[in-house]
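Sequence design from tokenized structure. All designs in this work follow the same two-part layout: the structure record, then the generated sequence. An example of the structure record is given first.
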């Protein structure tokens, strides 16, 4: 079993932060590495005459969504993805939005179609999500891509769980071995965009996965036996460090904005130091990874749909099953 002693100083990056023997996983640094890889793939595509394109649609004027969309556009610029934003008023009829998605689905220059959520209440989210062509569904929210995680077919993975898997690969490297196979993994939260795909990805990596949710009895009991804990509930400081197994790796997906504007995670970070072997902080953990994986998905979608002519069809898709 992994203990926090397994985290050898020589195996950490020189710049990595270690607080009371707990490695604070630098999501910003890992996301930078992902963006560098994506930029190199974009350059290969552009050299073959193909510029990857992402289309973002924002309905209404939710302030948080405006900030997220601006960030996505900046990220695209950095790696060379062409991006377009369509802004629609909050009272846009669902029909108009669906017609817009149909047009983007037909547009050969658009590789990724993303409709920013949440949508105004009168627009049925599921109708919108399922309208996006599955090979342009860079959010990975649609049934075909979610289904790929079950069937084992290659597909586009939702950005947050995809980012967590990439983060865990880095944890494995930095800790000199944190294999997922056979590991007791507990996922808290069963949403279809984070918890459920997260559990399926961990299962594909041969972890023993328990999924807990708001009706789970004795959450602490489950947390105490987790060697890997992924928490995605949006409930500020739901998990106290004293619940953790010594040497656990903790990935905190939740983000809550406090009254003073600061951000908190689902895990009480300070109390986890000295108990967890590694923990992703909020902010600076999973958030940057989610943004980076959107770029990864957009370029993979482009290479898969349009890269064949340029001999780039073998570009990676974010999910490939490890076995049939
Ligand atoms: N709103 C908050 N996060 C996301 C996301 O990852 N995708 C979309 N489409 N909307 C969001």
């Amino acid at each position: 079993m992994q203990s926090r002693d397994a985290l050898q100083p020589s195996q950490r990056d020189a710049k990595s932060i270690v607080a009371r023997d707990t490695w604070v996983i630098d999501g910003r640094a890992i996301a930078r590495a992902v963006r560098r890889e994506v930029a190199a793939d974009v350059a290969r595509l552009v050299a073959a005459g193909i510029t990857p394109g992402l289309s973002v649609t924002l309905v209404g004027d939710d302030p948080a969504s405006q900030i997220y969309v601006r960030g996505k556009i900046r990220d695209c610029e950095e790696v060379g993805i062409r991006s377009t934003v369509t802004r629609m008023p909050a009272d846009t009829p669902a029909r108009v939005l669906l017609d817009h998605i149909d047009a983007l689905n037909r547009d050969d220059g658009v590789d990724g179609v993303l409709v920013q959520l949440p949508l105004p209440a009168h627009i049925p989210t599921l109708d919108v999500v399922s309208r996006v062509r599955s090979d342009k569904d860079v959010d990975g929210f649609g049934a075909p891509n979610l289904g790929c995680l079950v069937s084992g077919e290659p597909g586009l993975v939702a950005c947050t769980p995809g980012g967590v898997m990439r983060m865990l690969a880095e944890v494995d490297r930095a800790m000199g071995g944190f294999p997922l196979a056979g590991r007791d993994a507990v996922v808290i939260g069963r949403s279809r965009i984070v918890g459920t795909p997260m559990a399926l990805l961990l299962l594909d990596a041969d972890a023993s996965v328990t999924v807990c949710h708001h009706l789970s009895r004795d959450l602490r009991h489950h947390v105490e036996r987790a060697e890997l804990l992924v928490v995605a509930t949006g409930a500020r400081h739901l998990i106290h460090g004293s619940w953790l197994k010594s040497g656990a790796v903790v990935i905190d997906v939740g983000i809550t904005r406090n009254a003073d504007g600061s951000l908190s995670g689902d895990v009480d970070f300070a109390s986890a130091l000295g108990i967890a072997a590694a923990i992703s902080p909020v902010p600076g953990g999973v958030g940057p990874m989610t943004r980076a994986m959107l770029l990864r998905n957009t370029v993979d979608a482009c290479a898969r749909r349009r890269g064949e002519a340029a001999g780039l069809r073998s570009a990676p898709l974010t999910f490939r099953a490890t076995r049939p």
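The chain has a mean pLDDT of 92. We note this feature because it recurs in several other targets discussed in the main text.
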